[in-house]
């Protein structure tokens, strides 16, 4: 019986053909099966790329980090969990939980950002991040009530 991924990408149009299948095959501990994350991008009928929504299912998390790989590929163009917008926390009891931004109604991270590197998009409701504007002060890390913001020392953002 194959386990399903703790995260998957839902297409905005159901019948659009996938251009990536089995995009990420995570290397996991030998006792676990590989988890596949498919359908990162799809093409609609007019031939343009469609947007997707990443859905996390913490109850299915097996600590494989495939959600981080898919996220970093989509947003950064590279397989690098450190650049992912998802953090997987693992307890000493081997209980894992994927965390991501909860897109707060009134985001504390954006309120404390003195350079507006984090701001809520009024049209979409999404908290946007401008890495070029970020000065690395880490006030947003302290302000997030859920602890869902991490600091990348290499990128200094």
UniProtKB/TrEMBL annotation:
Q: Identify the InterPro entries for this entry.
A: 4Fe4S_Fe-S-bd, 4Fe4S_Fe_S_CS, ET_IronSulfur_Cluster-Binding
Q: Which UniProt keywords apply?
A: 4Fe-4S, Electron transport, Iron, Iron-sulfur, Metal-binding, Repeat, Transport
From the UniProt record, which GO molecular function terms apply? 4 iron, 4 sulfur cluster binding; metal ion binding
Keyword Protein biosynthesis recorded: no
One Pfam family cited in the UniProt record for this chain: Fer4_4
Q: Does the keyword Repeat apply?
A: yes
Q: Which SUPFAM superfamilies match?
A: 4Fe-4S ferredoxins
Q: Which PROSITE patterns match?
A: 4FE4S_FER_1 (PS00198), 4FE4S_FER_2 (PS51379)
Residue ranges crossing the lipid bilayer per the database entry: none
Please state every residue range assigned to the domain named 4Fe-4S ferredoxin-type.
125-154
Any idea what this protein is called? Answer: 4Fe-4S dicluster domain-containing protein
Source species: candidate division KSB3 bacterium
């Amino acid at each position: 019986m194959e386990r399903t991924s703790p995260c998957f990408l839902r297409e905005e149009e159901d019948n659009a053909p996938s251009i990536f299948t089995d995009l990420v095959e995570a290397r996991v501990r030998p006792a676990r099966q590989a988890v596949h994350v498919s359908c990162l991008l799809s093409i609609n009928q007019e031939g343009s790329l469609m947007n997707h929504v990443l859905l996390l299912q913490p109850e299915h998390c097996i600590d494989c980090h495939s959600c981080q790989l898919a996220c970093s590929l989509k947003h950064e163009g590279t397989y690098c969990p450190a650049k992912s917008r998802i953090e997987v926390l693992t307890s000493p009891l081997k209980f894992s939980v994927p965390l991501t931004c909860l897109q707060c109604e009134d985001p504390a991270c954006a309120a404390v950002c003195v350079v507006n590197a984090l701001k809520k998009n009024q049209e979409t409701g999404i908290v946007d991040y401008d890495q070029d504007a970020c000065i690395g002060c880490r006030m947003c890390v302290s302000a997030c009530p859920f602890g869902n913001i991490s600091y990348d020392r290499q990128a200094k953002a």
